[in-house]
What we know:
By secondary structure, this protein is an all-alpha fold. The chain is built from 8 helices and no strands.
Amino acid sequence: MDNTKGKKQLIIEASIKMFCKKGFHKTKVSDIATEAGVGKGTIYEYFDSKKQLFIEMMEYLADQYYNKVLKVMNEEKNITNKFKYYILLEEKIMTKHGDLAQLFMQEAHSIGIDVHQIMGKKRKKLINLIANAIKEGIDKNIFRKINPYTAALTFMGSVHHILYSKIFAKDDFSKEINIEDLHDILLHGIKK
């Protein structure tokens, strides 16, 4: 067992691997324990049930995602570049983990977990982060005065939908998608 990580984190990370490999219903707690290098009883010291472990795993992944976005937004000082790097990060994460996210959403639904209730607070934090960057742009007279929350939702929704088309749909339009164009359109609009 890796002593640099706590047992709870090791168990969560092992559950990610096992749920990906076998799905929720076919994964046994003993499978997760073996993958984590702990006894089956140790898992129940941290989690009441396999379902509780699945919920905390989803929250863990959402926190990992949020922390990556927070780092990108805080490290970049140029307002417009913050949004460019957000798009690039989204593309990277969706390319690397998009199938995983879709699988977990399906699994959560199949076992009766209300994903929206669990992820609602995480989503709100992310919207606030993007809206605050937009407010900063408004305050610095880089962006026009608009509702920052509407703009954040528009920006995030557009990015997600376009990247979904590019990465998963792979339709006739997906090969036309260019990240630089996406950034330009979202920040400057389509007006001449």
